[in-house]
Amino acid sequence: MGAGPDGIDGVRLLERYGPWVVIAGASEGMGRDYARMLAGHGLNCVLVSRRKALLDEQAAGLERDHGIRTRAIALDLSEHDAAQRLFDLTSDLDVGLYISNAGADPRGAYFLDCPIGDWLGMLQRNTATVMGSCHRFATAMKRRGRGGILIMASGAGLGGGPRLAVYSATKAFEIAFAESLWSELGPHGIDVTCLVAPATDTPALRRLLERSGLKPEGLFASEEVARTGLRELGRGPTYIFPFADVTPEQAAAHSEARRERVEEVARSSAAMFYGKDD
């Protein structure tokens, strides 16, 4: 057992995270790439997004090309009960891997230029639904003694900026949430990793840029980013993708620094709450 030329250990993926993976935000972009890569390594795929027609087409292709099983679930993840509905629709499956990939910002607008309901929908999708889904799937993973959670965040979560107020805030939540879960769930055999992605060439980002009259330049290939996510799963709580003027060495150092901080907080927490853990 070992990693292939692309750095992905397919045997480990299947043995540790099989037989089923749930991919939230699977209809296009990185979600579609994740499904194709994982299906190629023999994992059955639950594909989740709002667009049923795209999911059905993708599911048929994965079954035909890789001989795996699929389930397409049309679901709006910004609805308040989305996490429970997702779990109910997959409760008969042995889910060993949950990938939270939904969460793009379709607006790129100033905070006051949109109704508060739009931002609350993003908040629900990127925080409450992610939290609820992780709680449900990780509970089952803890019983089986193994599993994985991969949360796709963004470099926008490392700091705020104009037209990013709610999006940045939700991505910061995802980073801190994933790091905490990494510390809590690791002893139970559950790998948790947050991939802090760069500006990535996805249909969603292209639509946003083109609507704003901007050319989609300097974007990372979605396949490269997704491949990195699978490679890094299980290696640590946070992987900050090199982007802009950040070198791979600097990104690795930043990721390691965050890991050390999580470990230090875990030690302090253990001292504070000693005897209260089960």
Question: What attributes does this structure have?
Answer:
Rossmann fold, alpha/beta, 278 residues, 9 strands, 9 helices
Q: Which helices and strands occur, and which strands form pairs?
A:
Elements: H1 10-17, E1 20-24, H2 29-40, E2 44-49, H3 52-66, E3 70-74, H4 82-88, E4 95-100, H5 116-144, E5 147-154, H6 165-185, E6 190-197, E7 200-201, H7 203-211, E8 220-221, H8 222-232, E9 238-240, H9 248-272
Parallel strand pairs: 1-2, 1-4, 2-3, 4-5, 5-6, 6-9, 7-8
Helix pairs in contact: 2-3, 2-8, 4-5, 5-6
Task: Explain what this protein looks like in three dimensions.
By secondary structure, the protein is of the alpha/beta class. It has a single domain (about 10-270), classed as 3-Layer(aba) Sandwich (Rossmann fold). About 50% of the residues lie in helices and about 15% in strands. It is built from nine helices and nine strands. Helix 5 (about 115-145) links the parallel strand 4 (about 95-100) and strand 5. The two termini are about 35 Å apart.
Structure summarized in a few sentences:
This protein has 9 helices and 9 strands.
- Number of strand elements: 9
- Return the average pLDDT rounded to an integer: 90
For the termini, the CA-CA separation is: 34 Å
Strand order of the largest sheet: 3-2-1-4-5-6-9
What's the architecture in CATH terms? 3-Layer(aba) Sandwich
Evaluate the radius of gyration. 18 Å
Looking at the structure, the CATH topology is Rossmann fold
Low-confidence stretches: none
Shape category: globular
CATH C-level class is: Alpha Beta
Biggest sheet overview: 7 strands, parallel
What is the helix content? 40-55%
**Binned strand content:** 15-25%
How many structural units, i.e. domains? 1
Determine the structural class based on helices, strands and strand pairing.
Answer: alpha/beta
The CATH homology group name: NAD(P)-binding Rossmann-like Domain
Number of helices: 9
